């Protein structure tokens, strides 16, 4: 991990340092992190996360801390970050839900500072993989949407007497003239046709 990354430790109590383990902060410092602790119930949590801009978020919890996790999810919605959750609870019943809510790594039965580095590395790696998959999914959806618009636009042009090849060439020429993607030109053509009825 790069030097001096920022990490925020969020406790599921009203006191940011309640139950804080000095060994944890020493270990995080030794790993090269600048550390800040905050309560998960702090109403300014979104502002704190925004201004501190941590690369990684740790949630320390006595239970599954769903309300704290939801607070963190809202606070990191615009700029997602790897989240490692350490729960004192032995329960792993809600792990799938936690992963869906953005937790990258979950450790039951508390935090072992000696195992902190590999857990954080897993959280960061999992987060990066998830972000890559989300980007690929968004790109695939965009390509499918473009394809749908292109097919509709070609159908409109074919109805006006063009062959499929002529319709495709016309769309490509319009895209080049307007310096737009083919899918965008097709979308605009379809929308204009829908407006005109």
From TrEMBL:
<protein>
    <submittedName>
        <fullName>ANTAR domain-containing response regulator</fullName>
    </submittedName>
</protein>
<dbReference type="InterPro" id="IPR011006">
    <property type="entry name" value="CheY-like_superfamily"/>
</dbReference>
<dbReference type="InterPro" id="IPR036388">
    <property type="entry name" value="WH-like_DNA-bd_sf"/>
</dbReference>
<dbReference type="InterPro" id="IPR005561">
    <property type="entry name" value="ANTAR"/>
</dbReference>
<dbReference type="InterPro" id="IPR008327">
    <property type="entry name" value="Sig_transdc_resp-reg_antiterm"/>
</dbReference>
<dbReference type="GO" id="GO:0003723">
    <property type="term" value="F:RNA binding"/>
</dbReference>
<dbReference type="Pfam" id="PF03861">
    <property type="entry name" value="ANTAR"/>
</dbReference>
<feature type="domain" description="ANTAR">
    <location>
        <begin position="130"/>
        <end position="190"/>
    </location>
</feature>
């Amino acid at each position: 991990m790069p030097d001096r990354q920022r990490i925020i430790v969020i406790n599921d109590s009203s006191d940011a340092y309640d139950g804080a383990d000095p060994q944890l902060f020493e270990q995080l410092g030794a790993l090269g992190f600048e550390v800040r602790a905050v309560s998960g119930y702090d109403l300014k949590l979104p502002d704190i996360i925004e201004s501190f801009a941590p690369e990684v978020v740790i949630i320390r919890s006595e239970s599954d801390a769903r309300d704290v996790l939801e607070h963190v999810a809202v606070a990191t919605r615009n700029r997602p970050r790897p989240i490692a959750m350490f729960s004192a609870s032995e329960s792993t019943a809600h792990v799938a839900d936690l992963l869906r809510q953005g937790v990258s790594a979950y450790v039951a039965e508390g935090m072992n500072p000696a195992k902190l580095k590999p857990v954080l590395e897993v959280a960061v790696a999992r987060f990066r993989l998830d972000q890559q998959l989300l980007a690929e999914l968004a790109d695939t959806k965009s390509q499918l949407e473009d394809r749908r618009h292109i097919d509709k636009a070609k159908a409109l042009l074919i109805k006006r007497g063009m062959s499929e090849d002529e319709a495709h060439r016309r769309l490509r020429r319009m895209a080049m003239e307007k310096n737009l993607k083919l899918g965008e030109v097709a979308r605009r053509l379809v929308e204009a046709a829908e407006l005109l009825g």
